[in-house]
Write a structure and sequence with these properties.
- The chain is α/β, with parallel strands linked by helices.
- It has 14 helices and 15 strands.
- The strands form two sheets. Strands 10-11-9-12-13-8-14-15 form an eight-stranded mixed sheet. A seven-stranded parallel sheet has the order 3-4-2-5-6-1-7, with helices on both faces.
- The longest helix has 18 residues.
């Protein structure tokens, strides 16, 4: 199956080729025919399988570009994810030679500049629900001619604290509109909300394993106070091409960043207390490989697609298996291999069995010895490694 077989126009196929995307993934093969017909749909597939393109390609095809109206709304939970989606929209349009206009609406950015951009009547608006609703309420974002609405990371957006804003956005749009929901996982609360919003939706699911099989799962036992130093040693031993380091708290991110910087390990720091410009700079530095280590809170664990991440390291342990899944999913994308390494205290080791049981994965205990990461085994302790080809 090719993109041409899926009725993707030649200009978009050429645009994909410029991004070195030549073959559709399973979720794209399943989703494109359904969405091209204008049907409501719920897309569910593991991380790194191309869900964004699975809905963008058909919805771009359905735009009436000659009409200067907003026809597509894409709602996402974080600044980073909305920026990523907007960038993909712009790249596709530019490489395809299309006049499609896209505007980004997020908090932390002057609203008057966003209002000015909306005056240009963009075809696509990508944003977070709060800022989107603010501009709808002000009469600046016109949603009355919207044809399609995407709720990305639906399991995160369709929860009690966000539903009032989502419902208000939907009330501003026509009743007859296409609804698309995308996520890697599903929660009962979000599933119920999707069923209420789009009772006739088509369920599209691909992949049987919740966790990418190309990820090797490791854990290392140490004292809580030693975690920053163990992280430093791990980075020296593994020499990752790109690594994401996850922490729970902003102060932990700053402490770890300072520790690594002192040891002359270049890092970017991405967490919730940083402003939009600081977070954008951190993402740009990491994407361009000016720095190879990104320290992040869970803000960055959902939906981001950064190529070349070889390692995910959890300094703070995720208590929920679902959170572990989303963190680990930042590596081994698009068929590559990767490692997820979690630093655990003795008391936190109980979570190993939970991850294994709930995610159907196996975690291997490792230790640092003579500057190498070695498997803890009853018979031998060989260095841990994998073929990245």
């Amino acid at each position: 199956m090719t993109f041409a077989d899926l009725n993707v126009p030649p200009a978009l196929i050429a645009a994909l080729a410029r991004q070195r995307i030549t073959d559709p993934t399973a979720i794209q093969i399943a989703a494109l025919p359904v969405l091209l017909e204008g049907k409501d749909a719920s897309l569910r597939a593991e991380t790194g399988t191309g869900k964004t393109l699975a809905y963008l390609l058909p919805l771009l095809c359905r735009l009436e570009v000659e009409q200067a109206t907003t026809q597509l709304l894409i709602v996402a939970p974080s600044h980073e994810l909305t920026i990523q989606i907007k960038r993909q929209c712009c790249d596709l349009a530019q490489n395809a030679g299309s006049p499609i206009r896209t505007v980004l609406l997020i908090g932390g950015t002057p609203m008057d500049r966003q209002v000015e951009k909306l005056k240009r009547k963009p075809h696509i608006v990508v944003g977070t629900p709060g800022r989107m609703l603010d501009l709808i309420s002000m009469g600046k974002l016109k949603a009355h001619l919207v044809r399609s609405i995407v709720i990305d990371e639906a399991d995160r957006l369709l929860v009690a604290e966000n539903l009032p804003a989502i419902h208000a956005i939907l009330r501003a749009a026509p009743r007859r509109r296409q609804m698309v929901f995308a996520s890697a996982t599903e929660k009962r609360e979000s599933a119920d909300a999707i069923a209420a919003l789009a009772p006739d939706r088509v369920m599209i699911e691909t992949g049987v394993a919740p966790v990418n099989e190309n990820i090797e799962h490791l854990y290392l036992v140490c004292e809580e106070r030693d975690k920053p130093e163990v992280l430093r040693k791990l980075l020296h031993a593994l020499r990752p091409e790109r690594a994401m380091v996850f922490v729970h708290r902003n102060d932990t991110a700053e402490e770890v960043a300072a520790k690594l910087a002192f040891d002359k390990i270049a890092v970017a720091d991405l967490h919730a207390s940083f402003g939009k410009l600081n977070r954008k700079q951190a993402m740009d530095d990491f994407r361009s490989a000016r720095v190879r280590v990104l320290i992040a809170s869970d803000l960055a664990a959902r939906g981001l697609d950064i190529q070349g991440i070889t390692h995910v390291i959890n300094v703070d342990v995720p208590t929920l298996s679902l959170a572990y899944l989303h963190r680990a999913g930042r590596t081994a994308r698009a068929g590559a291999k990767g490692q997820a390494i979690t630093l655990m205290t003795d008391s936190e080791c109980r979570l190993v069995r939970r991850y294994e049981r709930e995610l159907s994965i196996a975690l291997q205990q490792v230790r640092m010895r003579e500057g190498q990461v070695r498997a803890v085994d009853e018979t031998h302790g060989d260095p841990v490694s994998f073929d990245r080809r």
